[in-house]
Structures are given as structure tokens and as C-alpha cells.
Automatic annotation (TrEMBL):
Protein name: Bifunctional peptidase and (3S)-lysyl hydroxylase JMJD7 isoform X1
SMART domains in the record: JmjC
Stretches assigned to the JmjC domain: 128-307
Organism: Echinops telfairi (Lesser hedgehog tenrec)
InterPro entries associated with the record: Cupin_8, JmjC_dom, RmlC-like_jellyroll
Gene3D superfamilies named in the record: Jelly Rolls (2.60.120.10)
Amino acid sequence: MAEAALEAVRRELQRFPAAARELGVPPTVPYLDEAPTPLHFYRDWVCPSRPCIVRNALRHWPALQKWSLPYLRATVGATEVSVAVTPDGYADAVREDRFVRPAERLLPLRDVLDVLEGRAWHPGVLYVQKQCSNLLTELPQLLPDLEPHVPWASEALGKMPDAVNFWLGEAAAVTSLHKDHYENLYCVLSGEKRFLLHPPSDRPFIPYELYTPATYRLTEAGTFEVVDEEAMEKVPWIPLDPLAPDLARYPQYRGAQALRCTVQAGEMLYLPALWFHHVQQSQGCIAVNFWYDMEYDIKYNYFQLLDTLTKASGLD
Ligand SMILES: O=C(O)CCC(=O)C(=O)O
């Protein structure tokens, strides 16, 4: 009897993503030709938790005309920045049955630019991606080139961003599938980013496992070691690579449907909180994003319930 009830819960959880998709998930990410008003942004995108790509919202940022690898070299080439270094381009990803964080190096930005422009070699794959408002803390000289927040989004959300992040990396640098509790306004200034997205409602099809946290260590010889962080709690992470899903191991992912979109220079992606995302980029892509903390409202509670039921029913 208990097993029959559990099976019924699993069946309903597996039906839920299609029902949610039918009501509210578009087949592709829609474009807006201009920045929405705060009311439209909130009503049409934030409230229903729908992503969109906004064109012409960055036209007035000097960064859109100015930012290039030579400009960064001239203005902030000597500035030291935190750089994530990994052997294969995957920072914060499951490797060797561990959740592995990147090695972190403090390098003058010009060293990263040398690698991006093919003038120098560095072991591993480099990605300037420290998500702690690194634009404000590490590269404040660039601030006059853009707005410190997105005014229509700040007004709609009733708050200022928690973080403004700067992203610059090699084409091999990939961000593994994950979700955040932020309303994300992701602006590409040069090059392009390719996003693979899943709505939060796909959670029953997306596997999570618990992993011992570890960090890459870059040795003097230029090789990588994986060093366990034994004292730390295990980290729940998604082991699946959506570009080459292991469907024998994670058959439930067959039911998920990814949305893919490419965000070009001058475009801004609105990525709603709790949407799963996997990100790739062109060589030397330059981007800035604004993270606004989500509202921990009833939508959050519903997602938590979906998450808990998925785990408790053994679908993970
Ligand atoms: O640009 C990337 O590589 C990742 C972006 C991301 O994960 C985020 O903004 O939450």
C-alpha cells in the first residue's frame, strides 16, 4: 500500500513538468526589442518566471562600444584579478566523484589577456568569474563604462543587486548545470554566451547527488591535483552533463526539455531565479551580470516542496 502511494507520487511528479510547460514555458526564449517598463518586466517576466532576451537595453553603456580585449589591456591590464583555473574548463563541477572547485590564482589581467589572444600559454583553462561582485571589488576602474544596476529591474524588484559580476574567459570554460536563488540580468558586451536552460518545474527529471567537496591545486609543474576538503559538509550537485547526458545512469533526464539560447553582444538575458542553467561562451567573451536576490515567497515554497518530494520519492 505504502509502495503504491509512493509510486503514485512519483507518477504525478513525472507528469508535473509537462503540465507546467504547457501553461507557462515558451518553446524558445522570446526577444524584446527594448527595455521593458518596470511594470511590464514584473508582470510579464518576473511574476510568471519566464526568461527573455532584451535587445537595445545596453545601447547607452559606453562599455558596449569600448570593451574589447585591447581596451581591457590598456585600462586594467595591470590590475590583479582572481582567476579560476581548471584542467578541463569546468569549475564547480562533479569530477572523480567529488564536487570540485577551481584553483584560484591572482593574476594581472594582462596575463589572462595574453592567453586569450594566443600570446602566452598557461596550464589549464582560465576564467575570470569570481562571483562576489568582482566588478566592484576587483575592477572598479571599469565602472564609469556602465550603469551600476539595471534601473527598470531595480524598480520592478524593489531592491538593488546583491552582486555585479564580471566574466571573461576562454572558449573551453564552461559553467556546469546549476541554479541560483537570484533574479539574473546577464549582459554580454563582447562575443557570445550560449545558455542551456531548464525551468524549475523540470526538477523531477534533474538528478542531484551528494559529493565530498574538493578543490583543484595547480602544482609547480603545471599539473592539477584534487584536494579533498574533508571537514566540510557534502555538497548536493547535478552530476549530469546536459550536452552529453548519460541516460543509462540518469534515465529520468529523458523527460526534461532544454531551452537553448545564444546571447550576443549588446543583449541582456533575464534568467529568472531557480532556473537551471549551463553556460558556454566564445573565446574572450566579456560579460557583466546583476544578481538580485529572489523573493522567498510562495513560489519559492512550491519549488522547495517539488525538490523535497523529488528527493523523498527516490526520483533523484
Ligand atoms: O557565464 C557563466 O559562465 C555562468 C553564469 C552563471 O552561472 C550565473 O550568472 O549564474
